[in-house]
Here is the input.
Amino acid sequence: MYNFDQHINRENTNSVKYDLRAKLFKKEDVIPMWVADMDFQTPEFIREAIRKEAEKDVFGYTFRSQSFNESIVNWLLKRHAWSVESQHISFTPGVVPGLALLVNAFTSPGDKIIIQPPVYHPFFASILDHGRQLVSNALKFENNRYTMDFSLLKSQIDQRTKMIVISNPHNPVGRVWSKEELLELSEICLKNDILMVSDEIHSDLIFRPHQHCPLATVSEAASQQCITLMAPSKTFNLAGLSSSFLIIENEKLLHRYNEILEAYHLSLGNIFGNVALETAYNEGEAWLEQLLTYLKNNIEWVRQFLVEEMPQVKLVEPEGTYLLWLDFSALNYSDQALNHFIIHQAGLGLNQGKGFGKEGSGFMRMNIACSLSVVKKAMHQLKDAIGQKKEAS
Here is the structure.
């Protein structure tokens, strides 16, 4: 059994999550539940593999061996029933850099790229910073559940529309897109010759009975017009090791991407990231299953606490990820006032919903990949702050 209750002191380690609190929140003593890494200890079998690698005398240029790709192939087959050929795997130091490379490889300045907000905020920058036009195919929010708006999507496509970028599972709203939804999306894109880019970095973090469906698997045609971005970083707490990958089954697209990767001299990666990825996928399944059980328990605790103690705050039911999308609209705060309240009255460091697009107004994103004791403390602080607000009014 792995111990997910163990407290790991991350302060004074150059941790973005902890050591940038004063800069980001203008307040040092907030519980940081924002950036998407976990407070759980990186699994011992991965740390041991890194220690063993660190004993070598030289850290020169290295390449990824066949076993690196095989670990990915085996993991995808075992966890997602996705049969991938080793030669269709390519590298990126991270999903976001990979997305930027794809934008530059397959679109031109002025082209239109579709995203589905409220969505992971680097999607916006990856498009706008490279001179492309952003098209907002906002998700529909009905009965406390998000769905894709296919009618709107069809109306937004024109001759300049070249790419769509989706989050699958969706960050921050927690949807695990069904095969039927993804198939309908792909058929629209195939009909209009739109390249599909699917960020599937959270694909291992799925709560039963939901099951991850890679976009590339919905049809043979989709597999030839889809690029999938993945990494073990969210699953095994390896974000600092900068080792991600892409699956590109279309040989022409793969060749073009690899040309861009080589042009930027980004193909080598780093020694410890390579070791961590391979070890995680070869040895990490039991650890992951226990992690999922723990995360689900944290979510269930929050759900029950909100219903019983804070009915003003609504949880959008997460089907995947360790990121909770909380609806604070009943408090009738502006986004600025809500953020101030969360930081200075509740003592929490969360992500502002508006950072994921205007559709996130009134929401906050909360990371519950930490010990249950921290989750409980955070929720009680929030309850006390809301109680004081009531008394003051």
